[in-house]
Design a protein that fits this description.
The complex is a heterotrimer of chains A (362), B (263) and C (571). Chain B has 263 residues and is mainly α. Among the domains of chain B are: 47-126, Cytochrome c-like domain (Cytochrome Bc1 Complex, Chain D, domain 2), CATH 1.10.760; 136-221, Orthogonal Bundle (Cytochrome Bc1 Complex, Chain D, domain 2), CATH 1.10.760. Chain B has helices at 3-7, 13-32, 36-39, 47-60, 62-65, 82-91, 113-126, 145-155, 157-160, 183-192, 207-221, 236-259, and strands at 167-168, 174-175. Chain B is elongated, with a radius of gyration of 27 Å. Chain C contains 19 helices and eight strands. In chain C, a hairpin with a 2-residue loop joins strand 5 (318-320) and strand 6 (323-325). The two termini of chain C are 60 Å apart. The chains are: A alpha+beta (362), B mainly alpha (263), C mainly alpha (571). At the A-C interface, helix 3, strand 3, helix 7 and helix 9 of A face helix 5, helix 7, helix 8, strand 4 and helix 10 of C.
Chain lengths: 362, 263, 571
């Protein structure tokens, strides 16, 4: 029995019983609407016009593909073209993109126009096959399976079954353990916790400007000033290690306020203060999820992270005053060396960067 | 008596020693000085400028900043603010401030450059402070563009965004867009630290550094967008908005066209 | 016979002798697909995926997945002499030194955005029309999997160039991994081969992005489409459409032309966008280094909700002895994300349990006819939208001159308060639309034309409902909630599953209880007869007054005109 109603007929003519003509709510299905012919179906001139329209689109697409080739060969990659609103852009990108894009679009539009105007647009009805198999098929399938399963002995031979399952359960273990050296841990390497808790800042390490690596004197920084800094030895360490790992922990900032404005610091004493004449040093790595912060708002002394807006009050031990960060920004104890340049007194006393599970243990 | 002792009695000795001393002092000073004044044009304000500035200040600024520039409860002191601060605030239209708020908005500029220079001269006369740059200091012809980009990304992008479009700060304040900033305004902003902006002295960001930053910001203003329309250079937010509204919209229109019965 | 047909015949013979595919070809080429624009949204996703495969393969010919630092000396002057990774340098190379390279990059990125947009709207269409119900639950679960994979794939893809914006995103991802309790640090070190950023993450991400995830997506998409093919597509209620048929057009020629044409349209639109609109200008961001960041840093749109959740979560952290649990990161990035994707994948089963509806469905629901489901969906969109807005809070603050702190405080509350409000409003709207459909069946469409009878009565003329619309409205299924049984049977023995059954019945009531039932066939017939009568009368009056000469004598009609009594006026 054909399951497709030929165009022009309705389902009724195939003698389907009324159950098939029902909607899910039990009502009779509304009859299909009568077909209204299109202009191209009736008028050969309209059909030829539609044909011309479709083939024009395909021809233009072909020409545009050739234009793409010409643009690729002819337009130098450095040529720029100035356009209104867009500004100056790559002429090659523009030409290649417009030709290719328009060509593809026209092929698509042509094909769709062809289908809409010239191909038959009479709706066709196709019966849905029942999805579930017949009860006989199901029973036969089940009995085949059961016969096979019994023959295999999987059910009856307990010791085979159990030992097989044991071995298969253990199979994934080698596949997983082999991933352990995704971190090739050097011998005697500190634990992740320890590595995350130390930076290359150390006693006497000179503080230099980030980018130009120039040492800094206190008088170089005016009140309200901000300097992005790194340890002086970072340049050599980066060349030796070839990674940015130490920079990702050691990057810091210097800010200066009047000593009267400083309400509290994270440490230090009268003999060994952590600041130098109102110059404070802090880690630059946000304690939330690690974005570098140097948005220092000098009037409010607040440091704002652009990623998730954690805000720290640098005049008050860099404690969190807004946002999702849970820990304050670690302060770097600083002093001045014998030549008058700013140096660190030691490494950070709290770990820099995002929180982690065992951070209290360091 | 040895030969040197004999020459010490020459009448010209005093003059020569004084000259040598002066030269030595100057040389040591030039060598040791961080360089701020080495290249800074020693801005010589004329007496008339200072006088005119004082008058203009009295008319337009003293109601908040006091007749002596000493400040009041609603305005900070300008003693030590320097000519650069005046030049920046007034030439960008932030001052005179219409109403106090969390941040001075940029409004129309109501003073001519000559008037601004005059007021700057008067404020500079109150006490030393950051100076207005000379034209030589703003010359970017030899500046390193790539270095400017590096410095910009390290020191400026976190507030002003990678494209210099500005960014949000705390409590309703914002770092403004740099798209209309002149080299003079960029320089004076860096050395005076207006509003929330920190101060970048010429010791930590040298004049050369500042020139390369100015050159970089100039390149941002040139509106080069190799890939085409820039969607305001605000990043993935505008790209996402565009693809949802215009991209998907276009494709849905086509899909509807496909389904609609042809005539 | 034309040469093409002859050649085709020879090829068919050759293949059939070896594969016996004639029955398959016969079935397939005649297969009927229903035609509605909302069914093409999944196609956009499919075509975008193909475009991604093509453009992505091109890009792999030039991209170098290496974090080794080099000094740039290509043709992009503003970065000349700058230190950067090879990955970034090769992306600059593609953008400025390979002809067509920038176009390929932009096609690839626009196609990626389209891929995720299309999957999202397709998923919403399937959700709101109930196409995930039996027998298509498995397809829904695969779809949810595809969406998740797509999001991960996109994130991996735009992180490969190692630029400042995406590198910041990687840093945040690493910070999120660190926040996982117990395992966090070890997991982070395993992923990055040590500390962040290391030298191995981009190469590893490359393998994931180019091999692993595309392979899984390809397999899932194939099964997804095979299921649609085998189970046949669903259709909207309408003329001639029943649960047991598919009404539409055959694959050859119509559907091939329309669907094939649409592929070229999608490709064309993507390419045109890549021609004239910059996307992901990595040259402007600069190379990644962990001590630089830009204001207004956001991930691509499909990760915006996650970033927003991380922004607005308050700074909750527990410190117990030496150990810390960072709820401020763990809750939004891990718990919330996990909960949302799980709820998404499980929804068909949840709804099935809650409503007790175990029947097969091939006719789609109009969203208004499933008010609770629709309201749940719109509420979910509202929740998602609140998180999205949170993700862009700094851009909103600068564009509209607002305080970013205020926006954050407001959103912390809004994200819980606004969705239930949306639920209630949506449900009410759906029920109102159902009532209007009910009225339309009985009383026709209000035409907006007012008729004033000579007796002074004002009547609005109702037009009879069109066949197509009537068929659509009549396609509604009147769901009945599960009966609320008592907890004990006739002997007083408590039902062991009593509590669950009662809970289920309650859910079912919540789901279906408010539905406005369709009028019965008899009611519709009576109403239609009545309406025809009225319509007839009203037009009699109208026709009567047309072309009437003005005389001094009034024309009297029976007071029953437009009313319910018989009309002496016969036409």
């Amino acid at each position: 029995m054909s399951d497709i109603a030929t165009p022009g007929t309705t389902a009724d003519e195939h003698g389907h019983d009324s159950g098939d003509l029902e909607l899910p709510n039990g009502r009779p299905a509304p009859a299909p609407l009568p077909h209204e012919p299109r202009r191209a179906d009736v008028d050969p001139k309209a059909a030829r016009r539609a044909e011309r329209q479709v083939s024009t689109m395909f021809i233009v697409a072909s020409l545009l593909f050739l234009a793409f080739l010409a643009a690729y060969i002819g337009i130098d990659k450095n040529v720029v073209i100035a356009l209104p609103v867009i500004g100056t852009m790559s002429a090659s990108n523009l030409a290649l993109g417009l030709t290719l894009g328009l060509a593809l679009f026209l092929i698509g539009a042509g094909a769709i126009h062809w289908a809409k105007k010239l191909m038959p647009d009479i709706e066709v009805v196709q019966e849905r096959h029942v999805l579930e198999s017949s009860p006989t098929d199901r029973e036969e399938a089940i009995s085949v399976f059961e016969a096979g399963a019994t023959e295999s002995g999987f059910g009856s031979r307990k010791i085979i079954r159990r030992s097989l399952i044991t071995s298969l359960v253990l199979l994934p273990l080698p596949l997983v353990i082999i991933l352990r050296d995704m971190w090739v841990t050097p011998t005697d390497s500190p634990s992740p916790n320890e590595l995350l808790s130390e930076t290359i800042w150390t006693k006497g390490e000179r503080i230099v400007t980030d980018g130009s690596y120039r040492p800094i004197r206190p008088e170089d920084i005016p009140v309200g000033g901000l300097v992005n800094v790194v340890p002086a030895s970072l340049e050599k360490v980066e060349e030796a290690e070839g990674t940015l790992n130490e920079r990702a922990k050691a990057a810091s900032i210097l800010v200066r306020m009047t000593p009267a404005e400083i309400r509290s610091q994270q440490g230090g004493s009268a003999e060994e203060p952590w600041d130098v004449q109102g110059i404070l040093a802090f880690s630059k790595i946000c304690t939330h999820v690690g974005c570098p912060i140097s948005l220092y708002q000098q009037r409010t002394h607040q440091l704002l992270c652009p990623c998730h807006q954690s805000t720290f009050d640098l005049a008050d031990s860099a404690k969190v005053v807004f946002g999702p960060a849970a820990r304050r920004m670690p302060q770097l104890p600083i002093t001045v060396d014998s030549e008058g340049y700013l140096v660190a007194r030691s490494d950070f006393q709290e770990h820099v960067g995002p929180s982690f599970w065992e951070q209290g243990a360091s | 008596m040895n030969s040197m002792a004999a020459r010490r009695r020459h009448p010209a000795t005093l003059v020569v020693m004084l000259l040598l001393g002066l030269l030595a002092t100057g040389a040591i000073y030039a060598a040791v000085d961080s360089g701020t004044s080495a290249q800074a044009a020693d801005q010589k304000w004329s007496e008339t400028q200072v006088e005119t500035g004082k008058k203009l200040f009295a008319e337009g600024c003293s109601s908040c900043h006091g007749l002596g520039g000493q400040g009041s409860s609603i305005a900070p002191t300008l003693i030590g603010a320097g000519s650069a601060a005046v030049d920046f605030q007034v030439s960008t239209g932030r001052m005179p401030l219409a109403a106090p708020g969390s941040q001075a908005p940029v409004k129309g500029v109501i003073y001519s450059q000559a008037e601004i220079d005059a007021m700057a001269a008067w404020v500079a006369s109150l006490a030393p402070g950051p100076k207005v740059p000379s034209d030589a200091m703003l010359d970017t012809s030899k500046a390193d563009l790539a270095m400017g980009g590096e410095l910009f990304r390290t020191n400026c992008a976190q507030c002003h965004s990678f494209a210099g479009k500005g960014g949000a700060l705390s409590d309703g304040t914002a770092a403004p867009t740099l798209m209309n900033a002149t080299p003079r305004q960029i320089y004076t902003a860096m050395v005076t630290g207006p509003a929330s902006m920190p101060v970048f002295s010429n010791a930590t960001l040298t004049i050369e550094d500042k020139q390369s930053i100015i050159k970089w910001i100039g390149s941002l203003q040139a509106n080069d967008n190799p890939g085409g329309l820039s969607l305001s250079r605000l990043g993935p937010v505008t790209e996402g908005l565009f693809v949802w509204v215009i991209g998907l919209g276009a494709l849905i229109i086509v899909a509807i066209w496909i389904g609609v019965k042809a005539k | 016979m034309s040469a093409v047909v002859k050649a085709g015949g020879a090829l068919a013979e050759y293949t059939d002798e070896r594969l016996g595919i004639a029955p398959f070809m016969k079935r397939s080429l005649n297969k009927v697909f229903p035609d509605h624009w909302s069914f093409m949204l999944g196609e956009i996703a499919l075509y975008s995926f193909i475009i991604l495969l093509l453009s992505g393969t091109y890009l792999t010919l030039w991209f170098k997945p290496s974090m080794t630092e080099i000094v740039y000396n290509g043709s992009y002057v503003p970065l000349d002499g700058v230190k950067m990774s090879e990955a970034y340098a090769s992306t600059l190379n593609i953008s400025f030194d390979v002809r067509g390279g920038l176009l390929m990059r932009q096609i690839h990125h626009w196609a990626a955005l389209f891929f995720l947009v299309a999957m999202t709207v397709h998923m919403l269409r399937v959700f709101f029309t109930g196409a995930f119900r039996k027998p298509r639950e498995l397809n829904w679960v695969m779809g949810a999997g595809l969406l998740t994979l797509g999001i991960l794939e996109g994130f991996a893809g735009y992180s490969l160039p190692d630029d400042l914006l995406s590198g910041t995103g990687l840093r945040i991802a690493e910070g999120i991994v660190l926040a996982i309790p117990i395992l966090g640090t070890w997991l982070s070190f395993l992923l990055f081969n040590g500390q962040f950023p290391g030298l191995d993450f981009i190469p590893r991400l490359y393998t994931v992005h180019v091999l692993l995830i595309p392979g899984i997506i390809l397999a899932l998409v194939t099964v997804h489409l095979m299921l649609v093919w085998h189970q046949k597509h669903t259709q909207y209620p309408g003329p001639g459409r029943t649960e047991k048929n598919v009404v539409g057009f055959p694959l050859l020629p119509v559907y091939m032309a329309k669907a094939g044409g649409f592929f070229f349209i999608v490709f064309g639109v993507t390419t045109l966008m890549a021609a004239i609109i910059t996307i992901n200008p990595i040259w402007a961001f600069g190379p990644y280094t962990p001590d630089q960041v830009s204001a207004g840093s956001q991930p691509d749109w499909y990760m915006g909700w996650l970033d927003g959740a991380v922004r607005i979560t308050p700074n909750w952290e527990w410190n117990i002895g030496n150990y810390s649990i960072s709820w401020n990161i763990f809750l939004p990035a891990v718990v919330l994300a996990g909960a949302i994707f799980t709820a998404l994948g499980a929804y068909p089963f949840i709804e099935r349990w809650a409503t007790g509806d175990n029947r097969e469905h091939h006719i789609l629901d109009r969203p208004r006819n499933a008010p609770t489901r629709t309201a749940l969906g719109v509420m979910a969109i509202g929740f998602y939208g609140m998180l999205w807005i949170s993700g862009g809070n700094d851009i909103i603050a600068t564009t509209f001159d607002l305080s970013i702190n205020t926006i954050t405080y407001v959103l912390r509350v809004a994200v819980f308060v606004v969705p239930p409000i949306i639920f209630v409003i949506t449900k009410r709207i759906c029920l109102s639309l159902q009532r209007r459909d009910h009225d339309k069946l009985l009383h026709g469409i209000e035409s907006g034309n007012i008729l004033r009878t000579p007796e002074g009565e004002f009547i609005e003329i109702h037009l009879p409902l069109g066949d197509k619309e009537k068929a659509k409205i009549l396609g509604k299924v009147d769901h009945v909630p599960i009966a609320l049984e008592s907890g004990v049977d006739e002997n007083g023995v408590a039902n062991p599953k009593g509590r669950t059954a009662r809970l289920r019945a309650k859910f079912s009531h919540w789901f279906y209880g408010d539905n406005v039932y369709l009028p019965t066939a008899a009611e519709i017939e009576a109403a239609e007869a009545h309406a025809a009568h009225d319509y007839h009368e009203q037009h009699a009056v109208i026709d009567d007054f047309r072309g009437l000469e003005i005389t001094s004598e009034p024309v009297l009609h029976s007071p029953a005109i437009g009313g319910h009594e018989s009309n002496p006026h016969q036409h």
